[in-house]
Amino acid sequence: MKEFLNYEDEIYKCSRCGLCQTVCPVYKATLNECALSRGKFNILNGIIKGELKFSDRVKKYLDLCTGCNACKEFCPSGIDARKIFIAAKNEYYKNQKQTLLQKFLNSYVLFKTLLICLGIIAFIFRCFGISQIIKFSEKFLLKFGWFGKKLLLLNLLVMHKYNAKNIYSPKINGQKALYFDGCFNKYINNDTKNAVKNILNQCDISVVDSKFECCAISYFHDGNIDEFKKLIEQNLKEFDESCDYIITDCASCNAVLKQYKDFNESQKALMFSNKVISAVDLIKNIQFESTKTLNVALHKPCHDNSDFINIVKNIKGINFIEIENYDKCCGFSGKFALQNPKISQEISRQKIKNYLNKNIDYIITTCPACLLGLNQGLTEIDEPDKPEAINLFVFLAEYCKPST
Ligand code: SF4
Ligand code: SF4
User: Which secondary-structure segment (H or E) carries 246?
Assistant: First the structure.
């Protein structure tokens, strides 16, 4: 990654045309000029000229970005704004002395502890039937505003949608594929992991569990490159070089794991990144057949370059419903939702409107953070026939089989 000051020419390329206004989800939700790439470039220009300094306030404005890359694809000057914001935030971390509290709040220790606590809550919800009670009380809980919605959101995430025990039967073949769980599978709900194993087994690929930590995308996006590098080191220690692949089912993990080699100069990091493959790519040539007639639509995660759209469109026996803006940001994006909860909620709310009153049973996606974003929007809807958000592999394992 280049140092912030090396992006000077790219920042000057911004003609201030304002075209990014039409695509930026954060600008649309806030009408705040600082949410736009153009607005942030104005601030960064001030820093380059020495008129402004990196501060907590500047960082807050830089954080007004989900990293969706919509502006990059739309910008007539072809500016990769996300990259520049990450470099600028990294410069902030280098220049601004962090208090002990800030260091603790940004640490992986705290993040992991929170995930473990969430995992314990998820376990209690499932084991003591609390999930079912919450599901049954949806209408009532919606009357409790923020608290009720968050409880419903948590419940949607922890509930099992896939009964893995009945159909999962591992096979061993010649190739060894290490499974990169990602935080959601590892701590909160392993439905997707079980579904991936089941689908890949049916396709004669065996998957081996690993002890990898978080992929660290939230640290990368936050510009906290020191923490990002520490997690790369930890994950490299768990990397068994004799494996043939490292498989991930998460679009965001996939994108960031492939970048490890750019932040760690070792041969091991190069080998690691080169072995990363999306689970979706392993099933792209398989034709699936649905065992139930369902109406399905898609949400494409911003960082998903896999073929999952065609996999879904080609499933025999489903009714595929094309949705406008299916590829636009869901508003979650890891730390963004924690830093800007109201904006994140508003983007999710707008996004989900596209899927309502279209008789859709499922919105299929490939990223756990997007499931959070979609569910964040869905919990606001008090309609009995609203769609459900579901991971691609859970959908395939629950409702489909490879067609012969
Ligand atoms: S679209 Fe590109 S050139 Fe135009 S204002 Fe936005 S960032 Fe600048
Ligand atoms: S990456 Fe997305 S959220 Fe960030 S400034 Fe560009 S369009 Fe807006």
Answer: strand 245-248
Are β-strands 400-402 and 362-365 bridged in parallel, bridged antiparallel, or unpaired?
A: unpaired
Q: Tens digit of pLDDT for each residue in 312-363? A: 999 999 999 999 999 999 999 878 998 999 999 999 999 999 999 999 999 9
Bridge partner list, 276: 246
Look up the pTM and report it: 0.91
pLDDT at 293 > cutoff 90: yes
Determine whether the shortest distance from the Cβ of 17 to ligand 1 is under 6 A: yes
Nearest-CA residue for ligand 1 atom 3 is 14
pLDDT, position 144: 81
How far away, in angstroms, is 287 Cα from ligand 2 center? Answer: 35
Centroid of ligand 2 to alpha carbon of 212 (angstroms): 30
Residue 166's pLDDT band, with cuts at 50, 70 and 90, is: low
Q: Per CATH, is 288-402 categorized as 3.40.50.11810? A: yes
Burial 181-216 (b: 16+ CB within 10 A, else e): bbbbbbbbbbbbbbbbbbbbbbeebebeebebbbbb
Q: Tell me if 23 CB under 6 Å of ligand 2.
A: yes
Torsional class of 235: left (φ above 0), alpha (ψ -120 to 50), beta (otherwise): alpha
Q: Where are the beta strands (DSSP E) in 256-397?
A: 276-278, 288-290, 295-298, 319-320, 362-365, 388-391
Cα–Cα distance between 294 and 274 in angstroms, integer? 37
Give the distance (Å) from ligand 1 centre to CA of residue 17: 5
Residue 74 CA: which ligand 1 atom is closest?
1
Q: With a cut of 70, say whether residue 212 has pLDDT above it.
A: yes
Residue having the nearest C-alpha atom to atom 4 of ligand 2: 65
What residue ranges do the domains of the chain occupy? Answer: 4-95, 288-402
Ligand 2 atom with least separation from CA of 74: 7
- Sign of torsion, CA 107 157 275 72? negative
